[in-house]
């Protein structure tokens, strides 16, 4: 399906999968609303995209945990930007990798507030107009961590299991409305994800991907674009995308 001219809102577009989605949707002629906390990063991406294909990108420094700021930003968009056709719920993070009994409650709150509550706030703000119009598409970035658990993954896995549950529940709530919901659930993707998980410890983050070929952010963005370009009668509900060296959250080969 041709989606050129459609408006795509991507959360967490300043890095990794979100930034790659911005490039992929831009390449097929979409108009982009890009949000994340780091505005200078978003503006750099906007400049790159403008040099690729004109200027149809709006950026905003928005923390998805702050529902009021998100709603205010959304409602203050100029009328020509007010119709969101595709929402990519991508903003998310892991913090820490260790046993629950020694975990950091601050880390847990950050993951729950971002991955779960932030996704809910954004979706709640965007969906009503999609339902009113009888068209639209919500694409959630879940994870293999929403299907399985792994040692030390506890709270991150719980947030991604919650995203998987919400994805399934939303599909039921939206049945017959003309609004589609999909989830793209990757295995290991090399982005800034592990640097964030290990609170800036680059050495530890690099070790995660050592000796193996993980997915790239572009691989995931292609899958997201695949979901968004299905014809109206078809919908991808859950798409699990793994690197070939990974069979499950706990089974991968190095070297
Ligand atoms: P990155 O760290 O590269 O990107 C994360 C993005 O989320 C950044 O743009 C960051 O922007 C944004 N973000 C984080 N917190 C907030 C917030 N409170 N408000 C707004 N934006 C926020 O990691 P990935 O690209 O890998 O992660 C993207 C998604 O993919 C996440 O949901 C992650 O759980 C999921 N995922 C990742 C996998 C992987 O192996 N990398 C595998 C499976 C799923 P900023 O800091 O500027 O706000
Ligand atoms: C990110 C991939 O395997 O670290 O969701 O949970 S994993």
Write up this protein:
- The protein has 255 residues and is an alpha/beta fold.
- The chain has a single domain, classed as Rossmann fold.
- The protein contains eight helices and nine strands.
- The strands form two sheets. The chain has a seven-stranded parallel β-sheet with strand order 3-2-1-4-5-6-7, with helices on both faces.
- The protein is globular, with a radius of gyration of 17 Å.
- The N and C termini lie far apart (40 Å).
- The model has no long low-confidence stretch (mean pLDDT 97).
Q: Summarize model confidence as the mean pLDDT.
A: 97
Strand content: 15-25%
What small molecules does this complex bind? Answer: NADPH dihydro-nicotinamide-adenine-dinucleotide phosphate, 2-hydroxyethylsulfonic acid
| Spatial strand order of the main sheet | 3-2-1-4-5-6-7
Mass-distribution shape:
globular
Q: Under the CATH scheme, which class? A: Alpha Beta
Distance between the termini: 40 Å
CATH level 3 topology: Rossmann fold
> How many separate helices?
8
Encode the helix/strand succession as letters.
Answer: EHEHEHEHEHEHHHEEE
Major sheet, described briefly? Answer: 7 strands, parallel
| Sheet/helix structural class | alpha/beta
Instruction: Give the proportion of residues in helices.
Output: 40-55%
Rg, please? 17 Å
The H-level CATH homologous superfamily, spelled out, is NAD(P)-binding Rossmann-like Domain
Second CATH tier, the architecture:
3-Layer(aba) Sandwich
Q: How many domain units?
A: 1
Low-confidence stretches: none
